[in-house]
Amino acid sequence: MTTDWLLISTFGGQEPSLIGVGSSPKPFVPLGRHFKGRRSQPNRALDDVQNALLEIMADPEHRRIDRESEDGRKRILAEPLLNSESRLHGVYFWRGDTDEAPPPRDPAGAWHFNLTAGKASGSDDLFDLYGVAPEDRRSEAALAGAFTRLVTNRDEGEALAKIVQSEPGTEHQAVWKVRRDDGEERAAHFSCRMLEEKPDPAGDRREVILRGITHDIGPAGEVPAAPPPVILEHRVLDAVLTPGEYLAYVDLKRLALIKWRSEPMPGVAWEDAVGEPAPAMHPSDVPLARKMAKDLAYRKVEGILRFRGLDGDWKPLHLSVALMAFDESTHGGLVTVTEAPTPQNRNTSFGQ
Description:
Elements: E1 6-9, E2 17-21, E3 24-30, H1 31-34, H2 44-58, E4 65-68, E5 74-82, E6 88-97, E7 108-114, E8 119-122, H3 124-130, E9 141-142, E10 150-151, H4 156-165, E11 171-179, E12 185-197, E13 207-219, H5 232-240, E14 246-251, E15 256-260, H6 286-295, E16 301-308, E17 314-325, E18 331-339
Antiparallel strand pairs: 1-2, 1-6, 2-3, 4-5, 5-6, 7-8, 7-13, 8-9, 10-11, 11-12, 12-13, 14-15, 14-18, 16-17, 17-18
C-alpha cells in the first residue's frame, strides 16, 4: 500500500494542522490526533513530522528535507509551500519505508487576500494549478479577480459573508471547482483563516489578511463534493438577465466589487490584470455611492456612477442595486450593471 503525502497548514498564527491526506481533504485536524500512538511507546511518526516542521519553519525559503528517520526504518521528505511573499503557508510531508517510492504530490498553491485593501496575491504554485500563462501572472491584483476561475458551491453565501465581516480568527474550508485557463475543470479544496496584521511593525495601522491554500484533489467530474454544473438559484438569476446586463456582488461597506455573478462587463477595469488600468470609482461619485448604499436599507436604488474603463477614461454605468443577504446577519449588494446612455445623464434617480 502506497503511503500518501500529507498537506499541513502553517498559516494564520495557529498550530500546524492537517488539511489533506493524498487527495482527501481534512478539516484542520491537529497533528496529535492524526498521529495517534500507543501511550506506552514513543510516537515516532509525530516526532518526525514535528521535527521536520521546526526545521522548515526556521528557514522556509531554503530548507528541504530528504533523510532517514533516527531508527533508519523510514524515509522522511518535507517540502515548504510558500506564498508570493516567500511566507510559509504549508508543508508537504511524506514518511514511508526506505524501499518505498513516494507517489506524485497533488498540486497545491498558497495565496493571501488583503481584505482591507481589496487585493489578492497568489504564488507561482497557485498559478500553475490554475494553468495561468507566465505573461498573465502578477503578484497582486484586485480581490474580485480571485474568483474568475472558481465555481463556488452551496456555501458561497457563507464564504462571501465572512469576507464582508472580515473578522480575524475566522476559518473557512470548501471544495470548489477550478476552471483552468486551458479549459480543464478540477476539484479543489480551499482552506483559509483570517488574521490581523501590521504592515509596518512600528506603526499603528492594521489590516485584515485572509491566508490560505488551494489543494487540487482531482478532476471535477470524479469528485462528488465538487459543485454541480449549475445551481438552481443561479439558473434563475441568469434567466432574468437581458443582453447588455451584468450582475455583481458588492461589499456595501467598502463600496468594492466582491465578484461578478454573471460574465464580467466588458470594457471596465475591474481585475487589475497585467497591462490594465487600476480599478477605481470616480472620486466625485463616492458620496453618491455611499448614499445609495445607505438608502438600500429602505428600498432598491438606481443611479449612474463613473468607473475606470480599460481605455483609462471614466466610463458612466447605470447601476440597479438590491439588498442581498449572504447569511442571516450579513448583507451585500446585488448590482445589475448596464451601459449609461451618455456621460451627461449622470444624475441619479432612485426608485422602488
